[in-house]
Amino acid sequence: MGSKQAKIRLDWEAPVVAEAQVLVIGGGPAGIGAAVGAARAGARTVLVEQYGFLGGAATAAMVGPFMTSFSGTGEEQIIGGVFDELVRRMEAMGGAIHPAKVRAGSPEAGFYIFGHDHVTPFDSEALKIGAAEMAVESGVALYLHTRFIAPLLDGNRIRGAIVHNKSGLQALTAEVVVDCTGDADVAALAGVPVVKGRSRNGLMQPMTMFFRVGNVDDEAVEAYVREHPEEHNHLFRAIVLAHQDTFPAPREHIGIYRTPQRGTWRVNCSRLSGLDGTNARDLTQGEVEGRKQVWALVEFFRAHLPGFANATLLDTGAQVGVRETRHIVGDYTLTADDLATGRHFPDVIALGGFPVDIHPVTGKGGGIATALEMGLRTAPVYEIPYRSLVPKGIEQLLVAGRALSATHEAAGAVRVMPSCVAMGQAAGVAGAIATAEEIPVRETPVARLQQTLREQKAILSVK
Ligand SMILES: Cc1cc2nc3c(=O)[nH]c(=O)nc-3n(C[C@H](O)[C@H](O)[C@H](O)COP(=O)(O)OP(=O)(O)OC[C@H]3O[C@@H](n4cnc5c(N)ncnc54)[C@H](O)[C@@H]3O)c2cc1C
Description:
Layout: E1 16-25, H1 29-40, E2 45-48, H2 81-92, H3 124-138, E3 141-143, E4 147-154, E5 157-165, E6 168-179, H4 185-190, E7 194-196, E8 211-214, H5 218-227, H6 237-242, E9 255-258, E10 265-268, H7 280-304, E11 312-316, E12 326-328, H8 336-341, E13 348-352, H9 367-373, E14 382-385, E15 397-399, H10 408-414, H11 417-437, H12 446-455
Parallel strand pairs: 1-2, 1-6, 2-3, 6-15
Antiparallel strand pairs: 4-5, 5-6, 7-12, 8-10, 8-11, 9-10, 13-14
Helix pairs in contact: 1-3, 1-11, 2-3, 11-12
The structure holds flavin-adenine dinucleotide (FAD).
Flavin-adenine dinucleotide (FAD) binds near residues 26, 28, 63, 182 and 401.
């Protein structure tokens, strides 16, 4: 293919099929929070999602468990609201275990000690059902199988979006748009300044193809961990290092998490470095290589891991897991120092307690341990400000979830799913308030936003 690309100009019409007050694009953790939050705050809300189900990485990429929704000391729950309600709903279905009952070092926490206290194991199918029920019951109009194509712009103000689905091209108008695509697709196309990955070289966290294995002998795995307490934060390290020449992924240990079903574990172990999740060719490569790694990993597990002799590959994610792509440049950029010092923000809209978890952009090391080696520690409780969801340059647009305005390092902590639901909820509520008060969403009164969030059971401060 030559470097000069041919271009074709299109002139198509799209019928206006909905006039939303708050239009949420992307139905992952942030989008679920945003849509439910906006609808419950009284806004006519539309949620657009490209897949046939909600959940984002948690369903489409099979990522889990939900990382901690508790403070770093494990003493108190600091993420409530839509997230907690969703978990309780799934638990009532038999599809999750509430984080209050899950402790660090347990099989559900992948036997990790650091950063893994009070995680939430869940069944992705329960999430698909629970999230859709919550959205519909809250009055959200769902547009599934619908892909965002382009923003509707009026100068520097966004007024809705063009989407595509089986019905063809459609237009959705809105007072406020909340971009929850994870990749800041809406913001980037609208002209918001964005950055990718690390500030010094733009490298992004690697992708991972998650998979689930069944027919695992849980007792044998637990017995191995009891005999190898030194492997709590890097399970099966000795076995992987002993077979480095044949191990199918550039990793030094294996991340496995028991799901609510006995004998069934999620695996976070494949690694695809140097790819950009906003580039279709890179994504294609990630899908192809990711599944190849998975097949070889399952063969390795059967041959070498205690408890896995009869394990079967149940499924891979419908899409490769993309940890990081664009971050918007917002009115405030959250930094690692903010998280380390637990800086108080007058416009706090969510708390977090999960440490920085940066899978190395090159090499074989891993996550939280690597971040700690880089000196990236976090306070037991840190705050996320509203201004980090407000992009520069475009009016009536908010961005929630992993694409918020944060440095690579800070995003390495706040990208986890409970934080994304909480950010989304705040953005949705802000959109509803701004619409009702007929004010720019950038100027949403903070006190009113915080009060409504508290009424929706969000937690904005600790005792
Ligand atoms: C490999 C991996 C492991 C991880 N491990 C964990 C973990 O164990 N625990 C944890 O809590 N977090 C984990 N994370 C982080 C977490 O999963 C994500 O950061 C989080 O899901 C981001 O939420 P989000 O709503 O911003 O984006 P996403 O979850 O990516 O959701 C975005 C949604 O938008 C939709 N969308 C995107 N573009 C369009 C479009 N153009 N039109 C329509 N819809 C669109 C997508 O289909 C998706 O549903 C992991 C992430 C990865 C990739």
